[in-house]
UniProtKB/TrEMBL annotation, chains A, B:
Species for this entry: Amycolatopsis minnesotensis
PANTHER family, per database record: HTH-TYPE TRANSCRIPTIONAL REGULATOR RUTR, TETR-FAMILY TRANSCRIPTIONAL REGULATOR
Span of domain HTH tetR-type: 19-79
Oxidoreductase is among the record's keywords: no
Identification of the protein by name: TetR/AcrR family transcriptional regulator
DNA-binding region extent: 42-61
Entry keyword set: DNA-binding, Transcription, Transcription regulation
One Pfam family hit: TetR_N
Amino acid sequence: MSPTSQKAPGDARPGGRSARVRAAVHRAVEELLAESTVEALTIPVIADRAGVHSTTVYRRWGSVGELLAAVAINRFSGDLVVPDTGTLRGDLEQWATDVATDLADPDVSALMRATVGASKNGPADVCVVDRRAQLAAMLARETERGGRPPSVEQVEDFVLGPLYYRATYTAQPGDPAWARTLVTHVL
Amino acid sequence: MSPTSQKAPGDARPGGRSARVRAAVHRAVEELLAESTVEALTIPVIADRAGVHSTTVYRRWGSVGELLAAVAINRFSGDLVVPDTGTLRGDLEQWATDVATDLADPDVSALMRATVGASKNGPADVCVVDRRAQLAAMLARETERGGRPPSVEQVEDFVLGPLYYRATYTAQPGDPAWARTLVTHVL
């Protein structure tokens, strides 16, 4: 159950051979990211690893950038369950801990960096669109309970901001204890 | 006057032909980033644009990743003067406004995204190492005045965090007014 319905090019056709090609190509991208420098990530190299023709990949995704966006949407969608602990603080603490744990995974950060690198004409929002939707769901639930939660923007700025800044630009990724202090700061 | 002395490979030799090659190659990278997709940014393409042999570029920088790091260090070093307004709040507000303005420049964000993309084996800290040094200088000055400033980490988390998060991952880059509210939040 993903809270977003966003689709990237090349990911619209379900089932059969098409699904197998998609899975092989996505897996090839993730394997190559884990192994190689960014220069090696070209469509011929990806197609070779996936065991499909380059023309198939070009026709379906168009560019490495589009393909990375598709892989990122797939990886960053629906893999975190929206916490439901009964309180907003509990929900946000669980969620921030989950995000910190995810960002500390080298495969996740490699995919994230490559997606940022490939999104030169705009922001790499495929990396965060699902987090934002999960956040909106938790804050809406608090409003229904009669609470007065901070805005989505405030929690993005002061919880996701530090988490993604550290993961992207510093050598000290956040740990769960620190992620929980960010929640205290915003509530 | 750059507050850091960090050097990237290929940038150590001053003067003469070496300096001209360096300038031509750096300019080629920035031009190509402004024009092309990330796939096109290979050493042969950069060398051709710079009018030098590929072997020169390979020998000096080794990879597109190292070269992008060198361009980023050059671009993100020393171009912001450390504000000295007489108060910590004034200094940080000026500094946050400068950072927000810089991050809103499409050429800056293109170079930043490409550097992140090329730094797949670690964080893209060349993008922020100079900001951190400027910040440390302002906070040290406040301590000398007898003040009790927040830590470098706190200002990084709650000022640089939101600024870089928005520039990298969202479609709403920060503006100067919003940047100043981040400072209010941390003081």
